Amino acid sequence: MQHDKRDINRLKAGASYFACGGYLHSLDALHRSEIYNRLGFDRLARKNRDIVSFYRQCNENWPQTFYLMLLRTMGGIDNKDAFTELATRVPYAAILREKLSPQNIEAMLIGTSGLLDLYPHDEYILNLKRDFEYLANKYSIKAMESSDWKLKRIYPNNHPVLRLSQITTFLTHTQNVMDRMLECQTSDDVQRLFGCEARPYWLNHYTPGSDIQKSVSKRIGRTKSDLLAINLVVQMQFAYSEYTGNERLRSRALSLLEKLPAEKNSIISQWNSYGLLARSAFDSQALLQLSFEYCRDRRCEECPVGMRILAKSAAIEAHAE
After folding, report:
1. How far apart are CA 253 and CA 249, in angstroms?
2. I want to staple 184 with a disulfide (CB 3.0 to 4.6 A). Which of 38, 167, 171, 189 is the partner?
3. Left if phi > 0, otherwise alpha if psi is -120 to 50, otherwise beta: which for 217?
4. Measured distance CA(138)–CA(122) in Å, rounded
5. Cα 67 to the chain's mean position, in Å?
6. Closest-CA residue to 225 (of 183, 279, 166, 284)
7. Is 203 in contact with 218 (CB distance < 8 Å)?
């Protein structure tokens, strides 16, 4: 018992630094895959519960759910909640009614964000603001506060206003958006679907009023489209397959996750410091599940990695005695 407590305390002491990485790296591919499969499916199940919750909030409307998840995913870590709120204030039904007028959709989305007030002296923005006032009255839309958004340390290419313009292009130029998303099987499929350019004004602007001399493409790049593939396409395919019982769609979601490259962030970099532990997006999703559900809260006794380490330690000590 004393040995057990010592080993558990040792594990917990290093849990926040993902100290089990060395153990994972020491495993053969089969045993590591067993752990990843459990963690990966746990993460898919957790995200599925989130989508089901949003589906219910959307009055069991799948196109509205997809639209909400699209905005939420485009918001990234910093602004996912603000984008989610925006999707509830500008319903997908209003987007469809204005589909033939990209400027109206851009005005609704950026106007509702409340961010127009930050740029009062730009002519393009003033026109959007005038259009928004009309559309807000037409659809009974109430704008958010600009303070709802996190804008500090945001890269220009990830600024919410620019992302909303890219979303505008996607929604106005893509037919049957949810069906197209469900059909995606590769990273290239997702890039072709979401790799849209922002509205023409943004070719010479990153933010309103900040002219740049050279025209620069503001197309959604491969890195962002791969994140959309992992956090939107795969999750929606998996959730919709659970809802419909479509095994082919479920297999498509899993296959896509295995084909996509592993995410690049500080957490995955920490795991990979022990060796190349994340070779695919399925691997990185499994490691994120391990980090957030176990390491962060030091739940080593319940962790699929921690339990194996403790069992191995107990077996070694028993053999030594």
Report:
1. 6
2. 189
3. beta
4. 24
5. 13
6. 166
7. yes
3-state SS assignment for residue 246: coil
The token duo for 178 is 């949810």
pLDDT average, residue stretch 167-190: 95
Q: Give the Cα separation of 159 and 161 in Å (integer).
A: 6
CA gap 95, 98 in Å, rounded: 5
Q: Is the sign of the CA dihedral 23, 24, 30, 35 positive or negative?
A: positive
At 300, which amino acid appears?
C
Has residue 10 got a pLDDT over 80?
Answer: no
3-state secondary structure of 205: strand
Strand partners, 62: none
Using an 8 Å Cβ cutoff, are 196 and 108 in contact? no
Q: Measure Cα distances from 170 to 42, 102, 106, 178, 296 in Å.
A: 31, 10, 11, 12, 37
pLDDT in tens, 20-63: 898 999 999 999 999 999 999 999 999 999 999 999 999 999 99
5: its two tokens: 């407590």
Task: Give CA–CA dist 269/300, Å, rounded.
Answer: 21
What is the Cα–Cα distance from 119 to 209, expressed in whole angstroms?
Answer: 7
Residue 163's alpha-carbon distances to 11, 23, 159, 232, 286, in angstroms, are: 42, 41, 6, 15, 28
C-beta of residue 270 within 8 angstroms of C-beta of residue 287:
no
Which has more confidence, 4 or 169? 169
The string of pLDDT tens digits covering residues 75-108 is 999 999 999 999 999 999 999 999 999 999 999 9
Residue 212 has a CB neighbour count (10 Å cut-off) of 11
Residue with tokens 């600024």: 159
According to DSSP, residue 294 is labeled I
pLDDT band for position 153 (cuts 50, 70, 90): confident
Residues 77 and 135 sit within 8 Å (Cβ to Cβ): no
CA dihedral 255→261→266→271, nearest 10 degrees, is 70
